[in-house]
Amino acid sequence: MKHFVFWLVVLALALSACAPSASPRNTSRRVIVINNPAAEDVREIANVAWHRMQLNFLENGTYSTNVLVDLTLPQGVRWVLEDFSNNGYRIRFVSSDVPEIFWLITPEGVETLPVG
Asked: Is the Cα dihedral 23, 57, 87, 78 positive or negative?
């Protein structure tokens, strides 16, 4: 099991080098920068979720939220499935500690967006 976790981390790091930017796809959107440890924790877990979804797609040819079942979320953080198909998804991560923003993951990457 230790070897599996090690190689999963190595693969995640390798994928992160190829990952799309976490900045918004639409450059007309405002880039959100928050100096808050709680926000950083959510951004990090959203990136882990994105990597898991992409890895499952690479291995199986489809997306599956089953890979998120054992994702350890920080206290006050939850994810909500907004849209899902075999070829795409939209998952929103929210935190009660950072209510003014949310993190949206799609096959293109992770975006930090304002609520409302």
From this structure: negative
| Angstrom distances, CA of residue 5 to CA of 23, 45, 115 | 28, 16, 35
User: CB atoms < 10 A from the CB of 4, how many?
Assistant: 8
This prediction has a pTM of 0.71
**Tens digit of each residue's pLDDT (9 = 90 or more) over 5-27:** 556 555 555 555 555 444 434 43
pLDDT tens string 45-64:
999 999 999 999 999 999 99
Distances (CA, A) of 44 to 7, 9, 38, 109: 19, 14, 10, 12
Domain ranges of the chain: 35-116
User: Which residues pair with residue 114 across a beta bridge?
Assistant: 101
